[in-house]
Please model this.
Amino acid sequence: MNGNSLGPLSRDVRDRVNAVVASEWGEQLIRGWNSAGWYELPGRLGDKIGQLIGAKPGETTVCDSTSVNLYKAVSAAADLRPDRSKILSEPRNFPSDLYILDGYTKNSALDHRIELAERQNLVDAIDDATAVVVLTHVHYVSGAVFPMAEITRRTHDVGALIVWDLSHSVGAVPLDLNQAKVDFAVGCGYKHLNGGPGAPAFIFAAERHHAAMQQPLSGWFGHANPFAFTDDYVAAEGIRRMLTGTPGVIGASALEAAVDLFLEVDLQEYFQKSQQLSEVFQQQVDQECGGFGLELASPPSVLERGAHISYTHEHGYAIMQNLIARGVIGDFRAPHYLRFGISPMFLSVEDIAKGVEVFREILTTRSFLLPEYQTRQAVT
Ligand SMILES: *Cc1c(COP(=O)(O)O)cnc(C)c1O
Model:
């Protein structure tokens, strides 16, 4: 129950990685850049992810991490609004997003300031001084979903641009970036997409920005002609200019095999099953685990949250360690959140019921108080 943090390994991904290592790298060596399609991999895979997020072909590519791509997207957007000073986000956004904004404003030649507005005041904080709005669509703890189209519209009404972080959205909720007229977006490959630990991230830029946009990490893979080896940087046409250096082919190949599975499913059914499982989990936890100090930390309606659900408990860390020891793998987020991913790709109603049974047992016996569940590891 952790596909929102690290999706599991599929047979397809395992077979693809084996094939890339053994026969592409192993036998084709450097020829693989041409013969095995490695050079086109970022754009080809970007277009596949594009089908899951409502992008047109040529608007999405795969490279680097979400954090690095966020830096590029924010910089590209801010450069398109040089006469404005405010970059707007929300407090308790995913920390890396806030750290990247901090790093960007310190390094940018433009004079930017970051403003963090609480969710209930956010729309009013989007004003004439705003250059860029940077928000995470599905919150990483609560799972609460922002109304993407409405906030994007408000952003455009004041003449600003928006960057959406889709890390907990892609593969979790229906998305249509072009219908919402989104400017830029980034997101993770290793969460609901099941691309494997540290899988590369994606970056989307609406076609209308391609001609004017620039990005700060102008490496040779974003050059118009990398193999001309000239001294001067000339940006490639289109989304390819968002690339920086050589892509990690093994990681991107794993992600491609994982994304191919999404292109085989009926997405409408997939999201319906996700909501059904999420509702079943919530109801059973209410019924079986009520009265033990557990509080729902997500929107109570399945329509208002992504594909994970969180609870608080004063012994949250120890309870999650105990659950994991019993084979129910969710995760813990400081200071006291228990998080459960609900992925319809590999979970069934029976799995959910088994998970809740173990949860109940742990809460009733208070086995989580045992010393072995109290020590914090480096990664929670
Ligand atoms: C998981 C996540 C990230 C992770 O960024 P990396 O650079 O891949 O470590 C960034 N933003 C959000 C909102 C996330 O949920």
Notes: The longest strand covers residues 130-136.
